[in-house]
Amino acid sequence: MYEKEQLNNFKGGIAIGIGIGLLSGVASTLLIKNKQNLSADVILQRIKKAFLKEGPIEGSWISFEKQPVRKFAVRTEGYNGGITRLEDNRLVTYEFLADAKTGSVLDINRISV
Q1: Which helix (H) or strand (E) holds 45?
Q2: Considering the chain, what is the average pLDDT of its residues?
Q3: Is there a smaller number of Cβ atoms within 10 Å at the N or the C end of the chain?
């Protein structure tokens, strides 16, 4: 009887240990992913994909150096980049600023060439 009780306690301890290990693994993975920045290439591909929905692209670029960005009270890091395409038989360039963590476009300006 005593051995059976010890075996049940042992099984319960293992189950608790596995549960704690899984929870801490998931939590640490989420924390690490939340703090990681997207690469400049991934951000440029996402923005190009959005522009391609409206028409073909002639060229694109992105700076691989992150720069500090401040919009009102929010501080983050971002990448500068640009897209060039034909609109009404004229080259038009769009310059953008994208958030390094989320890839969201923070600012975009249309520049006629």
Answers
A1: helix 40-52
A2: 84
A3: N
Q: How far apart are the first and last CA of the chain?
A: 87
What is the rounded CA–CA span in Å between residue 58 and residue 70?
31
CA distance 69 to 76: 5
State residue 6's pLDDT score.
Answer: 67
C-alpha–C-alpha distance, residues 102 and 97, integer Å: 12
What is the longest distance spanned by two Cα atoms in the chain? 89
d(CA 55, CA 53): 6
Full-model pTM: 0.67
64 CA to centre of own chain: 15
The radius of gyration of the chain's CA atoms, rounded to the nearest angstrom, is 25
Q: How far is CA 113 from the centre of its chain?
A: 31
CB atoms within 10 A of CB 88: 5
Low-confidence ranges of the chain (pLDDT < 50): none
